[in-house]
Write a structure and sequence with these properties.
single chain; globular
Length: 521
């Protein structure tokens, strides 16, 4: 196959089926990132461990996934994109079945590690296969469906997870992957087994791989456990951070000039790709931080249960379902700069709107900004993805999508860690400020306590009621501050796009970026 050839192994209904199955594989993998979050306490209780120990169910998956993601490019070049995709989907499915049968925390964590290692390449390879199956003028449609899945799956995860835990059993969090995984692997292999990508006998860059495992593993551990360890007050967190940064620094220095590096950093020499990855990472980091803090606020402050909190987030999917295919179908006619400018402006407006809530906010008042957020996300992924990948040759798509998804997931982990930490910190500051007023017994406090006392609540009870109100109000103030910070970040990104002419319609304006290995052949 030539380097510029567009692969079209199937057409018509078969192509539609293949697109559906590949997207289902993406949905399955992303769903598992969030579906178990709501079930940690339940699973820990069933397995006889503490909830703190149970968090390893989440961290083991994310660490393994983060390590495996950058390996996608090497795996695809060495064994073929179709073979690797079918293999990792099959391995992911098998690990899911074994996770459902786990009888101890050690077994479950081990299976989650295998899930993460297999699941890491699914996301970039699904994107790569979709891009290869469609001609350039129709790739936007495929990316529209892919982007829709990426945004909707994390929203559905907590809702579905909460329902399964409450009404069936936590093992179904993993059992549901069985039928989906089998269908995806079988259909993809059946339709594409004779249309494999070019393979090259490339040896594994063992030094780069070791540095990658140490660096990513250490930093991901810090992001997962830093908050409970009190961040840099803990010698363990400090040591893991220094080890991770040092390993990643050596990794970048090694990979930048290594001909057969496990991660092809020469992609970053292409400005268009680097700009797209940067925007994608920062934007998704901010979005994911809001997706994590928002349900926590509903659960801890507003008194929602898990399913109610999930349903409050679900409206993000409505406009995304409507507009993602439309944007994808017409992306080749549009300027990605303008679409991204609109997207960041909408996301900034949504965040600012969410920062105006009070403790009296009703359900419909809360979900209205989520509708607008869904519209902003519908035009977020596709323009950036189309922009940054438009100059990448087909044989480098797996490496390019692998690295961009790695950066996006690392940004998501960073956003979640920073977002929750900042939220807690601002709440603690507000709690001290509000608590000092109770101790001073100012006029407003005296009036409130008298109102509580008139309900027949005793002295001890009235103070408990006041303390609970202070707690909720402190976290409400922190929530407003958090969303205002998100609004500022999105506004700054919109301003950068408005002030620069670097982002222009990229199609047919520059030569395609070729593999650097071709220089040595």
């Amino acid at each position: 196959m030539s380097q510029t050839q567009v692969l079209q192994p199937v057409q018509g209904g078969a192509l539609a089926l293949l697109t559906l199955m590949i997207s289902l594989g993406t949905f399955m993998e992303i769903l598992d990132i969030t579906i178990a979050n709501v079930a940690v306490a339940t699973i820990a209780g069933d397995l006889g461990v503490s909830p703190q120990q149970g968090t390893a169910i989440i961290s083991s998956y994310s660490i393994a996934c983060a390590i495996a993601l950058p390996l996608t490019g090497w795996l695809a070049r060495r064994f073929g994109e179709v073979r690797v995709f079918v293999a990792v989907v099959s391995a992911f499915t098998a690990a899911s079945m074994l996770a459902a049968l786990s009888t101890s925390l050690e077994m479950l964590v081990s299976m989650r590690l295998l899930q993460g290692l297999a699941g890491g390449p699914i996301l970039p390879l699904s994107q790569t296969l979709l891009l290869r199956c469609y001609p350039p003028e129709k790739r936007g449609q495929a990316m529209g469906l892919w982007a829709m899945v990426v945004v909707i799956a994390p929203v559905i995860g907590p809702v579905l997870g909460g329902y399964l835990v409450d009404h069936v059993h936590w093992s179904w969090l993993f059992l549901i992957n069985g039928p989906a995984g089998i269908a995806v692997a079988y259909t993809t292999w059946k339709l594409m087994k004779n249309h494999e990508s070019e393979r090259k006998p490339i040896a594994l860059d063992r030094i780069g791989f070791a540095l990658l495992v140490i660096g990513v593993g250490s930093l991901q551990w810090v992001l997962e456990h830093g908050r409970e360890e009190d961040w840099f007050e803990s010698p363990k967190v400090l040591a893991a951070t220094l080890l991770g940064l040092l390993a990643m620094a050596y990794f970048v220095a090694w990979s930048w000039s290594e001909k057969e590096a496990v991660v092809d950093l020469s992609l970053l020499r292409q400005f268009q790709y680097t700009a797209g990855v940067s925007m994608l990472t920062v934007g998704f980091m901010t979005y994911y931080a809001s997706v994590v803090v928002f349900p926590l606020w509903l659960l801890l402050v507003m008194g929602y249960n898990t399913v109610q909190a999930g349903l409050a987030i679900a409206p993000i999917a409505i406009f995304n379902l409507i507009f993602s295919p439309l944007v994808g179908r017409n992306i080749h006619r549009l300027n990605p700069q303008y679409l991204s400018l609109i997207s960041f402006s909408l996301l900034s407006l949504t965040s600012y709107w969410s920062g105006s809530f009070t403790l009296e906010a009703g359900y419909w008042e809360i979900i209205m900004p989520r509708l607008l957020q869904g519209l902003g996300m519908a035009i977020f992924f596709i323009p950036i993805q189309s922009y940054m990948l438009s100059l990448i040759a087909n044989e480098r798509l797996a490496a390019a999508t692998g690295f961009s998804n790695f950066s996006r997931m690392l940004g998501a982990a960073l956003g979640a860690a920073i977002g929750v930490t900042a939220w807690d910190h601002w709440a603690a500051q507000a709690y001290v400020e509000l608590g000092s007023r109770i101790q001073a017994l100012d006029g407003a406090t005296i009036g409130y306590l008298e109102a509580v006392r008139s309900l027949g609540i005793g002295a001890d009870g009235e103070l408990a009621v006041a303390e609970q109100l202070v707690f909720k109000q402190a976290y409400m103030m922190a929530t407003n501050q958090f969303f205002h910070a998100c609004a500022l970040i999105f506004a700054l990104m919109a301003l950068i796009l408005a002030l620069t002419w670097a982002w222009r319609p990229p199609w047919a304006k520059q030569p395609v970026l070729r593999p650097r290995v071709a220089k040595h052949e």
